Amino acid sequence: MTTETTQPATQFTAPDPGQIVEQTATVEALIALIKMFPSLPRPYVTIYASGTEGFNLQLDHPSHFEAWRTSLQLPTNPIRLSASGGSVWLDASGVFRGVPFSLSGFRVPLTREQAEAPQAVDEAPSAVAA
User: Is 0.90 topped by the overall pTM?
Assistant: First the structure.
């Protein structure tokens, strides 16, 4: 009779996803946004599931993006103009009630080539000595 030693099959375990209670501040911030701005266009909302707590608001039109950007008092700089495939969108980020968020506005009426072209920067006029 021969004896053979075998190793047990490697067991795979899923990473700990954390607990939903860890997203309380994000959900409370979203509820506060709904109460503060009930008439703003409805966004597609994503709550970050891992890593940093936060959320993303995605809007289907640049005018919807601008309505949210204005209401959240986000500065126009830095708004990023991004392109991938046939899509062009606006992207900005901020913090609301201590929770980081990003704001995206799709259907920007530009081609990818136009969006990726170098942009001219207007410099403020210099003071002229009298």
Answer: no
Asked if residue 72 lies in contact with residue 103, where contact means CB atoms within 8 angstroms, the answer is yes
- Cis omega (within 30 of 0) on the bond before 15? no
Between β-strands 55-59 and 80-84, what pairing exists: parallel, antiparallel or unpaired?
unpaired
Angle at 101 between CA 93 and CA 117, to 5 degrees: 30
Tokens at 23, concatenated: 């997203």
pLDDT in tens, 71-124: 999 998 889 998 888 888 999 999 999 999 999 999 888 887 888 888 765 555
Tokens matching residue 20: 């939903």
φ, ψ for residue 11, nearest 5 deg: -95, 130
Which of 7-43 are b and which e, b meaning 16 or more Cβ less than 10 Å from the residue's Cβ? eeeeeeeeeeeeeeeebeebeebbeebeeeeeebeeb
C-alpha dist (Å) from residue 35 to 40, 64, 69, 94, 115: 11, 18, 16, 19, 35
Which tens digit of pLDDT belongs to each residue from 19-60? 888 899 999 999 999 999 999 999 999 998 777 789 999 999
